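Inputs:
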Amino acid sequence: MTPLRRQRFILVGLLVLGVSVALGLALLALRENINLFFSPTQVMAGEAPQQANFRLGGMVVEGSVQRPDADLSVEFVLTDTVEQVTVTYKGFLPDLFREGQGIVAQGMLNSNGIFEANQVLAKHDENYMPPEVADALKKAKEMGLK
Amino acid sequence: MIAELGLLALIIAFCTAVVLGIVPLYGSIQRHSICIAVARPAAWVQLVFVAIAYGCLTYAFLDNDFSVSYVANNSNSKLPLLYKISGVWGAHEGSLLLWVLILSGWTGAVTIFSRTVPEDMIAKVLGILGLVSVGFLSFILFTSNPFARQFPPVTEGRDLNPLLQDPGLAIHPPMLYLGYVGFSVVFAFAIAALITGRLDMAWARWSRPWTTTAWSFLTLGIALGSWWAYYELGWGGWWFWDPVENASFMPWLMGTALIHSLAATEKRGVFKAWTVLLAVFAFSLSLLGTFLVRSGVLTSVHAFASDPERGLFILIFLMIVVGGSLTLYAWRAPGIRSVPGFNPVSRESALLINNVLLVTTTATVLLGTLYPLVIDTLGLGKISVGPPYFNTIFIPLTVPLVIAMGFGALCRWKKDTFARLRSDLGILLLASLIAGGIWPLAMNHYSFAAASAGTLGCWAIFTAVRGLWIRATPGRRWRGLVQTPRAYWGMTLAHSGIGIFVIGVAFTTIYSMEKDLSMAPGDRISVGLYEYQFDGVQNLTGPNYVAQTGTVIVSRDGRIMARLSPQRRRYLVQQMPMTEAGIQAGFWGDFYVSLGERLDDSGRWAVRINYKAFIRWIWLGALLMAAGGLLAATDRRYRTVVRTPTPEAAPQTTPALAG
């Protein structure tokens, strides 16, 4: 092999190795770390997974935010105007969390059908509506019209 | 009147850019000296008119001209002066204008700082930059005119997004753009070299200072963004793997690969074709970043106005740039001859590992960023890829990168032997192991992860400093150090920065403490070594907001360490609540307290108490990298004219055309 060929061989070999290792890692990581999004309607229809994390989005129902204890636990209801899901969470709520606001919660459904969130996100969209939630509301509205 | 003047200036700038994009390129191909001579003046005319347009928009902000809808949407008469100036780039239209201003600025800089480059090459570079300007100026003129009036005019503006009313974020976009746009110069050099077919060592030498400078600004921009997120978003995180952060991080990774590849091309004449490809990719990723941020396809803290038409425009522009460059590349690449031959143990090999790892990292970040978009577009559902994905792939790829970095910096070009390196590297490895192993003993608990990261960080720092030490041969230490070129000092600084960064990231993750509490006035709580006392909340009125300010006193063994004032603001115009964390920065760690919401009427509040260990090291590392880059870019080598052409400086046009 000429030096040039050998150099190219090393280059290509390293590239292939690097890319395959990275691809393997990436696919492994993707499989474990993807969070699907579901709307309250989908959750009530039983489409959401039972023992896995997913993201639930909707509007916080007016007057539903309650603090049962003196600690940071909070309970509220999310809706897509058709169905409702009760969410419990313990911790800091984001700045933009308020009643009537679209939010996304990440967590798991418990056996009572209550969504136990480990993270609550209210993103800084201009009209304070996360796009997934806007989409879910639109779909729910279309379903309601049918 | 001023707004119309601004628009007129923008149109003139657009026409100039068209001239700049056509005439000098034509001239350099046809060897027409008058056409070539058009390049420099046209670049200046464009800069002047874009600057006038930019000045007009700034004037409209200062003048509270709310008949201009962009001003009405992003300013307010009560907005403090600083944010009126920074508000110009606070949203889509203005930030694009800033983009074009910086692009014109870089174009002007090329005319000044590239005296050593032949005139026909400069003409091509300026011409390509002109074409990029045409793309962006037409984008502004056709889809996002910042000077558009609205009828009837409103009497008061809707105010700047409160998130952006912050000194850190005021300077974050310009820095980031200086980096992003800086890669366009590197891109222009690469394309110009591809057109002529002269991908020689001289080309690499011309490109290097531009790449390093752009990269340094990008580093600063990203670090500023991270710092801002840390203190402004109120939960003490410094990096979220948010798609918009990734959008700036991908060009950075690619730029880092490019810097190293260029070094090998300039010094040894290897990896030429690869280097050109990296230059194209770095710029393409900058464009992709703009597309991702500005088209509104992403959900993120930064997702401002979204407009599919604008997204489509940038996407088409991106396709022209990438498609055109790759076609040109495919045509020219077979004619590119690299100097063959280097040993498996050599600096070239280390740089190769660097490149493979960095490009792989970029690809995986790209995959994680685009994957949700692809799935959504295909209608397969809405998903998000979270930080665990990025951490899972990023850490295993970064560790070998840092190991190879220490090895490469001490390795010789072309051919080296393990036998020669062994004694040097063995001692440094031992020293790193000892330092890294002992370090966690000084912390509140021992962690093997911290010890490993400490070893890795020390390895990076020790090898970098050792390289410098070798240059200062015994007997003439000081002269050796003084005579060491700035580029080498730059490398030492940047590599040490990586080490400090690695330690910062690991120690922050492992040794920070966080507690979310419900606290009534007078409550005391111990977190780690410190005691935090909550002294209640007072009301406060700012220029355009009202706030509630809490007081938290931090003490250790009865001695007061810090008095923190976390705030919860409500901006009056947009009625938007904002958290301002109370922070006392320290070299070994920050006290960080933020205020949540009032929980009941007795004055009980949600309080988040943080101790952020070693967090400053993260940005200190980034600052060292940026400083190193800027130092290296000013190396004397880049300013001197090379009189004797290197062997492969001979034109390579013929083989490429024939082949």
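Chain A has a mean pLDDT of 80. Flag for discussion at group meeting.
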